[in-house]
């Protein structure tokens, strides 16, 4: 027993104090908990993709510059050649690599982000000995917005190395006002901080910051193909000033994108219109779902520019359990932040899935 204990003692205490990232078993459920695209690829594309993957040389290491994939991503996301690009095994990996790159031995380095926002920002800071400062959002009538005076004051006080701005935000779903984003990016610039705009939900949003890379030299724009419909292949990418990206690319494991991912994303981007029309479909059904939620008694959906809707219920826990008992899995956010008390995060599914969700909500008998 003493031996066992000392073995576990080799693990950093802050890691032992953490709970593992829990993903519930969704077998048999209508799965509306993880912001996945509910539509698969059409059968003809699947067959072509299978052929493309069959031709991949699995015995060879990837070519670590990933030139062909980078070219496709630049064309797709309209990233000018003057800016650098970095690929990650999902944007989760990019978030970790950013923390790793800014963490300095024996020096207090800070990442600052609004709260509630994406949980990986905090996790990556913790794992890389980086201080993490959160600034609460403010709840408005329709959604959650940046508290600009509080953000600007916290940036001046903590002088972070990096500020995250998820746009749209997860788990609240909305876009932050443009003037507020500009004020925070500028405040970050004034203390020499990187401003990372996380556009994981860009396919469902109204605006992108990619076109503003030239305006702010501290701006990095991060994207992923996950929410677009390729969550399983794991590919994120980030664009920014070339010299910065050159440095950041040094911490990237050289073969972090496997050859199957490289081939699959390359292929799908040749047919990007398929995923784009699915995204358009999701935006349209999001409006129907929002409308349906608004009509239910004592449910407050918050405005969304993503492929999910954050909504407040009278009793979030009871509603979560009642949906689960009816075979629908959503994400209970009630404990994630005081501001999310009684809130559930509902992914936008197919029209049928959304209808099943609304029907189940009406049938729970809960107010
Ligand atoms: C889902 C999500 C990501 C992570 O995406 P992956 O590329 O799948 O790792 C990053 N940021 C936000 C805000 C997200 O919601």
Please supply descriptive tags for the structure shown above.
single chain; 367 residues; alpha/beta; Aspartate Aminotransferase, domain 1; Aspartate Aminotransferase, domain 2; 2 domains; 7-stranded mixed sheet; 4-stranded antiparallel sheet; globular; binds pyridoxal-5'-phosphate
Descriptive overview:
This protein is of the alpha/beta class and 367 residues long. The protein has two domains: 23-43 and 273-363, Aspartate Aminotransferase, domain 1 (Alpha-Beta Complex); 60-270, Aspartate Aminotransferase, domain 2. It contains 14 helices and 15 strands. Helix 5 (91-102) crosses helix 6 and helix 12 (272-295) runs parallel beside helix 14 (351-363). The longest helix has 24 residues, at 272-295. The termini are far apart. It binds pyridoxal-5'-phosphate. Residues 90-92, 118, 166, 170, 198, 200, 224, 226, 231, 236 line the site of pyridoxal-5'-phosphate (PLP). The site of pyridoxal-5'-phosphate has 12 residues, from helix 5.
Proportion of helical residues: 40-55%
CATH topology of the largest domain: Aspartate Aminotransferase, domain 2
Query: At the first level of CATH, what is the class of the largest domain?
Result: Alpha Beta
Overall number of domains: 2
Corresponding CATH architecture of the largest domain: 3-Layer(aba) Sandwich
Name of the CATH homologous superfamily of the largest domain: Type I PLP-dependent aspartate aminotransferase-like (Major domain)
Q: Averaging pLDDT over every residue, what do you get?
A: 96
Q: What ligands does this structure carry?
A: pyridoxal-5'-phosphate
What strand line-up does the widest sheet have?
2-10-9-8-7-3-4
The fraction of residues assigned to DSSP E strands is 15-25%
Largest sheet: 7 strands, mixed
Rounded to the nearest angstrom, the distance between the terminal CA atoms is 52 Å
State the order of secondary-structure elements, H for helix, E for strand: HHEHHEHEHEEEHEHEEHEHHHEEHEEEH
Alpha-carbon Rg, integer:
21 Å
């Amino acid at each position: 027993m003493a031996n066992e204990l000392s073995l576990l003692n080799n693990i950093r205490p802050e890691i032992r104090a953490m709970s593992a990232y829990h993903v519930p078993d969704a077998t048999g459920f209508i799965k509306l908990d993880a912001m996945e695209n509910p539509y698969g690829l059409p059968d003809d594309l699947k067959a072509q993709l299978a052929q493309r993957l069959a031709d991949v040389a699995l015995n060879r290491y990837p070519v670590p510059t990933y030139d062909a994939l980078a070219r496709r991503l630049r064309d797709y996301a309209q990233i000018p050649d003057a800016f650098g690009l970095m690929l990650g095994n999902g944007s989760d990996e990019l978030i970790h690599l950013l923390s790793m790159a800014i963490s300095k031995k024996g020096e207090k380095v800070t990442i600052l982000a609004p709260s509630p926002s994406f949980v990986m920002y905090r996790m990556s800071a913790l794992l890389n000995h980086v201080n993490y400062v959160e600034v609460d959002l403010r709840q408005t009538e329709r959604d959650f917005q940046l508290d600009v005076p509080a953000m600007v004051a916290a940036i001046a006080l903590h002088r972070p190395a990096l500020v995250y701005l998820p746009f749209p935000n997860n788990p609240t779903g909305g876009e932050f006002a443009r003037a507020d984003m500009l004020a925070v990016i500028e405040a970050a610039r004034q203390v020499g901080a990187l401003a990372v705009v996380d556009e994981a939900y860009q396919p469902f949003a109204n605006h992108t910051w990619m076109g503003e890379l030239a305006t702010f030299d501290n701006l990095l724009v991060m994207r992923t193909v996950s929410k677009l419909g390729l969550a399983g292949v794991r590919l994120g990418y980030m664009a920014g000033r070339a010299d910065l990206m050159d440095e950041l690319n040094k911490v990237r494991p050289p073969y972090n994108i496997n050859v199957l991912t490289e081939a699959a994303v390359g292929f799908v981007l040749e047919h990007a219109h398929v995923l784009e029309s699915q995204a358009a479909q999701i935006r349209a059904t999001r409006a129907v779902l929002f409308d349906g939620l608004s009509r239910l008694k004592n449910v407050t959906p918050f405005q969304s520019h993503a492929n999910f809707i954050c909504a407040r219920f009278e009793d979030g826990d009871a509603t979560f359990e009642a949906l689960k008992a009816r075979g629908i899995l959503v994400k209970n956010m009630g404990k994630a932040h005081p501001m999310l008390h009684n809130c559930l995060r509902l992914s936008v599914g197919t029209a049928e899935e959304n209808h099943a969700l609304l029907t189940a909500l009406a049938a729970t008998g809960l107010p």
